[in-house]
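#onboarding

Welcome to the new folks! Below is a worked example of what a typical request in this channel looks like: someone posts a single protein sequence, and someone else replies with the predicted structure as tokens. Don't worry about understanding the tokens yet, we'll cover that in week two.

Example request:
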Amino acid sequence: MQMETLYTPNCVRTFTGQFIKINEPDPLMIFPVDIAVGLSRAMRFAGHTKKPYSVAEHSVWCMLKAEELYPQDSYLPFKVLLHDAHEYLLCDVPTPVKKLLPEYDLYTTILQDAIHDRFKVAVAARDAQRIAEIDKLALEWEWCNIVLKNAVLVLDDKSRIDYFIHHFTRLCKTPVVLQP
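Example response:
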């Protein structure tokens, strides 16, 4: 291992070996497999659930809800699937903690914009409202069914990754390479 790659300034190394500069991400270095791996291993509620429940599963739940609520909008489900994609590098930070980290929102926006650029996604104000609505529904459902009732099917690591990639490839409207 080369030491200079261990301490690459402002970068996070992804599963496929990409070094993503958090404050200036190169969209061409963002790959669906890295997003799927990162989100499948980032746990909701800071991991404080009785059974593992990942951001990847949350994202797919939200995407399926978008298809149910807005069947006429064929672009919205993909936008919803990617709504927390920045967490593949920034992790799922609980809202009370986010409020204590003012720069977190800045890096969320920078990274999310690069992800949208990479996959040719444009999120209009109406989309953002719908995404927020669905995200709130998910939070309430997850709280009742995962945190309180412990009623979730536990997927293994590979299944969580495959689950996300399946829906990503089904919904992505532009040709994309899954990994380098």
